[in-house]
Amino acid sequence: MSRRVLQGVLSSARLWGKGRQNAVGLVAVPSQRLTSSLTAPLSCTFITSHAWHNSHPTPAPSPTHHNAAGIRTADAGKEMLEITFADGNSSFFPYCWLRDNCQCPQCFDSDALCRKLTLEDWQHNDCPRSVQVEEGGRHVEVQWVSGHRSCYEAQWLQQHAFTPSARDSQRSFLAIKKELWSTEMELPRMDYNGVMHGDKELLDFLVTLEKKGVVVLTDAPREPEAVLTIINSIGYVKPTHYGTNYPIRSKASASSLAYTDQRLGMHNDLPYFQYVPGIIFLHCITQFEGKGGENDLADGFHVADYLKQFHPTEYRILTDTPVYFWDKGVAQVKQETTEYHKIVNIPIIVEDRLSGDVVRVNNSQLRNSYLDLPPEQVTPWYAALRLFNQTVDQQSIRNKLNSGEMLVMDNTRLMHGRTGYDSALGERHMNQAYLDWDGALSRRRVLQEKLGVTLE
Amino acid sequence: MSRRVLQGVLSSARLWGKGRQNAVGLVAVPSQRLTSSLTAPLSCTFITSHAWHNSHPTPAPSPTHHNAAGIRTADAGKEMLEITFADGNSSFFPYCWLRDNCQCPQCFDSDALCRKLTLEDWQHNDCPRSVQVEEGGRHVEVQWVSGHRSCYEAQWLQQHAFTPSARDSQRSFLAIKKELWSTEMELPRMDYNGVMHGDKELLDFLVTLEKKGVVVLTDAPREPEAVLTIINSIGYVKPTHYGTNYPIRSKASASSLAYTDQRLGMHNDLPYFQYVPGIIFLHCITQFEGKGGENDLADGFHVADYLKQFHPTEYRILTDTPVYFWDKGVAQVKQETTEYHKIVNIPIIVEDRLSGDVVRVNNSQLRNSYLDLPPEQVTPWYAALRLFNQTVDQQSIRNKLNSGEMLVMDNTRLMHGRTGYDSALGERHMNQAYLDWDGALSRRRVLQEKLGVTLE
Q1: Signal peptide position in this chain (chains A, B) (predicted)?
Q2: Burial, B68: exposed, middle or buried (Cβ in 10 Å; 0-12, 13-18, 19+)?
Q3: Is position B179 within any domain?
């Protein structure tokens, strides 16, 4: 069993603790402006749910906090409450949103951090019988026509306001703005052991990876377990039919071109997964000492952005044309599954339907010959794909990993390739594993809250 | 290392085997119709790549096969080759597609089942110097202006044709058509041991799950390992911060409402994952014997379809409005990770950008209070969500699992809930784990090919 903690909820939870049981009758005040100076301090009364535990310490009221998060006025309109905060900013709060997000123990489980209330439990047209600003602006109390009573803390309302700044703040906690790059990019490099053992270093690594899509970790232990150790410190290893982790070295009769010494064109890994592995950890255990075996890297999101700007027709063709990617085979070594046949039909450049943002880029020799298009659309699509690949090549950087280094890449975004080498002249041994972004983003947010770091 | 096998490639591969080394000069025939009756039998000559292994047995020519898959004529046009097959059907094949999909050992690795050719290796405007229908229609040979020579087998061309039927066939291999359902649905039930030990039964289970989104497996062993055993026989268990598998039973101070005896509203699991778990295996180890503890089930895709048809305004609001789902907590038991903070911003009904098909439905008490909307859009959104939930309830079926039964659900599609029960009166113990669709679909395709089953 886990106990969940959220700062906003905690603050609000104070309102529902013991010692606040003095009921005070409220007067109906439709559309009436109430200021903290007009109302007497008032506490809220609720049925204390059996599931409610007043286990969170109640901080002493702080005048600073009070001023920063205070409510100056609360205006009850027809469908919304307009709240003006002490800092002069104001926001409308729709009644149905307020009712749905009542933080009382009957409506919200502060252990599970989960709404207990379902939509059936309240009327869509419920509205306030009265609204009171309490404790000199510390919170606002709503007495609903239906009989329910809700208290909302000033700080919680400010955090959840429908203002551009509050909305931006949550958006940047969801995802950090990506920094697109081209040939001038200097590959970010960090120490593996620092990242493994320092919260600040791990946060820095995860933020850089989210922004740039690539980081090189230096001085990792030269053993296959190193990729698993770091992934397990962040989230879960994502297994595929190639195993939880797998060596990349030259072999005869290889199941993948990766297992040869041939040049690999610019690609991302396993694009034939609906849930493409989010992050690649490619660990160079032994680098080939002769010529070749370098990695080319390009920012697929930058390439998409470039095409959108300078070649809008080709960009549109690449976003509007789904392509079959596939992988099929029979395993012959321990870490692989016995048989697999994976297919997706997805464009080279994938846009989010609502925002239009590029959210995934796919490119691989593992395009299937099947193409679900009218034949007259095929030649223009090839021309666009050719332009995409030329741009990827032109905008790429080249790096040869040292033995012990680990190349970490956003596989939804990065295109990577390898120059050929002659395996007759020496060994080249990489080990690889995957982690999904769900785990990495979760860890980044946990560390941000732990270290109190706000990011744009 | 794995060796990959594909029927279409195998057939084509015969053309590149030993004993077919007799070079024959070809004549330029732009835009000229060539019929099998006009050409002498001809074999193809190629540089035999060191990576090429003639390890596939060459079947003896079959007159039936010849007739069914034969090429009657090949017309070379400006940008495409028009091929008419022996069955009277014809298709255009764009030259760039033909060149990109040359199956010769220089262009294609039949071990890796992967294109070796990159776009840099050929010219976009390459076109045939000559086209010859060979071996009485068994294959067609293209001599390119650039000097390269390609052979395409009739059957391979027919399979990969740009005709509606060939395109439909590949589309249905990718994904089986879903059968939407409402209250009249009879829950599909299959024997756990049959599915575990029979290829046909496993295929039947996977196909039914893909079509209906739900199957009950009966007579599973009443032990927690049962969910892992069946998932591992299909693909990989998907771990989450709740562990690889986890018990669902009533507890004090629960981290999730699931861990109480309270009613659970209709929801899907973990909608706050970008990569939401695809399939839920919910195993009833011990059912509560008193009143309650039943599961309500509804087809979210049917509900979306219903709203689209009868309430298009609300449907559009639900597809166009992203909502924050979240889960945050600190683990206190072994199978959970230490801390997590997962968030996505995603609509209740998710449409594919290109097809407009509904591909995912999300609903949960774990909607965050944050809502990234202008306040005037909030009330209409709540009205639409209310309609969605009412429709889910109205269109649902109720089922109480017996001890030993396993409820398997498509978590991208199904909404499920639980009626409350009184945990003071007895035990209720479920065990749960997840599998992604990437693994399940792969297994279905492998079994289809193994058993020779074609599905619509």
Answers
A1: none
A2: middle
A3: no
Instruction: For chain A, say whether B122 makes contact (Cβ under 8 Å).
Output: no
Residue in chain A closest to B246 (alpha carbons) equals: A1
What are the 10-residue block averages of pLDDT along chain B, 456 residues in total? 36 39 31 34 30 31 46 96 95 98 93 87 95 94 97 96 95 96 98 98 98 98 96 94 86 72 91 98 95 96 98 98 94 68 97 97 95 96 98 97 98 96 90 97 96 88
Q: Same structural domain for residues A157 and A105? A: yes
State the pLDDT at residue B260. 81
* A174 falls within a domain: no
Structural domain of A353: 189-451
Q: Mutation test of the interface with chain B: which of A438, A448, A449, choosing the one with the most B Cβ atoms within 10 A?
A: A438
Q: Report CB contact under 8 Å: B373, A115.
A: no
Q: What is the least distance, in Å, from the CA of B188 to any CA of chain A? A: 26
Please give the ipTM for the structure prediction: 0.86
Interface test with B, best of A93, A244, A377, A378 (most B CBs within 10 A): A378
**Number of domains composing chain B:** 2
Residues B314 and B421 in one domain: yes
Q: Are residues A101 and A225 in the same domain?
A: no
Residue B58 domain-assigned? yes
Are B389 and A5 inside 8 Å of each other by CB?
no
Which residue, among A1, A160, A233, A236, would best test binding to B if mutated, counting the most B CBs under 10 Å from its CB?
A: A1
Q: Is position B2 within any domain? A: no
- State whether B226 and B319 are in the same domain: yes
User: Which chain B residues contact residue A333 at CB under 8 A?
Assistant: 1-2
